[in-house]
């Protein structure tokens, strides 16, 4: 990795990881509160069905790594001479135009969502009970303003990261979680989930508001305009943005397919899939965000300067570290999912049956962790070359396969909830492979070195998994009070996993393990 950028990237990665951990913990606390009050029931199903489209706006489209954030970083980072410089008049004008168009577009979508909520929920949950559809529609009306907020937050995140302001974009989701927790504890007699929907909308509004003062301090001034004629930079934004939005939206179609099949299963099925995804995103989101947020502006700048060898070096180093950290995550999920979910969530309305459903969904979803980190990493390389069309084509090509896999796994093989998340893992793998193959049109990445190291890490992981599995089985024979048993088992197996995995990688002479030991020793 080039010496001039490495310390800054690693320092930023540590900082972002710490901030993201804090934000994820608060999100985890929010999920625990929601699970405690609503469990895996018709009310929680209605809320999570209704939340899917607002989530598309604020998390998928507008979140860190989403199309608006990615397009903003890819274009604005090339217009800003250095990370510490103030925005020029040209940059401010582009910002104002982009914000104006985004506001009016999403305002229109939000209004349409509000007035057609019944039809939208009826289409998404076409196999669900009428009371489920009606309740989900009521939730969706309350949360429709979040659609307007999503794209704007994405632009704010992108601009802040262009100026090396990493903390606020990664910390601000904590605000939404905090608002939800406070409101639910203040109004805990909510029997319909409408209070939860309102708290989610209020949290999103607060999440948007806190971004604005920092942008003004940097020097951004919003002067609404429609300066679109012969605007080269705006065209570059839209050339990236539209395929990326379509790609993300197409990706959501896969989720709507999952929602359709989940509505044919037992009550609480969709809630279980949502919670499995939330738990999955806790470690994986921290890992991916920590490394890819500081790397993406560097990818974009190096692509603009045509320093392709440096991009290859950064990519291999970044993905290698992600693989190294992801393998023990898979091991721990497969060996400790049931105990961990029981320890954290099993209380109130969230019973042992819900624990089993979420654990099953999570275990099959864990198979997607490795292709997930590779897919997200290589997508940033595409965006750095202003190419969002290829990821879009790959995403749209997987829709039919997703429906087919769901049909085979859920209907024909009767796998139930597990079939939903297993099909997701297969689709993620297919997308990662296709993106990895097609990137050669832009740049020839050095896969041989990357996957040679991955082979060693995988071998170390396989041996570690066997030892952790036997350790867990052996510990199950010990009789202790429930929560003490689960807590001690998690600590024991996690310690064995990390220790054995690191030692084996050191024996295999993996540089990532050596670097980890050196950094821990120095600190």
Description:
The chain has helices at about 5-40, 40-60, 65-80, 90-115, 115-125, 130-145, 145-160, 165-170, 175-185, 195-210, 210-220, 230-260, 270-305, 310-345, 350-365, 370-385, 390-395, 400-410, 415-440, 445-475, 480-505, 510-520. With about 525 residues, the chain is an all-alpha fold. Helix content is about 80%, strand content about 0%. Helix 2 (about 40-60) runs antiparallel to helix 12 (about 230-260), helix 13 (about 270-305) packs antiparallel against helix 14 (about 310-345) and helix 14 packs parallel to helix 20 (about 445-475). It has two domains: about 5-445, no CATH class; about 445-523, no CATH class.
Briefly say what this structure is.
The chain is mainly α. It is built from 22 helices and no strands.
Number of helices: 22
Q: Which structural class is indicated by helix and strand composition?
A: mainly alpha
Largest sheet: none
Count of strand segments? 0
Spatial extent as radius of gyration:
23 Å
Give the low-pLDDT segments.
none
Average of per-residue pLDDT values: 85
Oligomerization status of the protein chains: single chain
Assess the beta-strand content as a share of residues: under 5%
What is the ordering of alpha helices and beta strands? HHHHHHHHHHHHHHHHHHHHHH
Bulk shape = globular
Count of discrete domains? 2
Distance between the first and last residues' Cα: 22 Å
- Percent helix range: over 70%
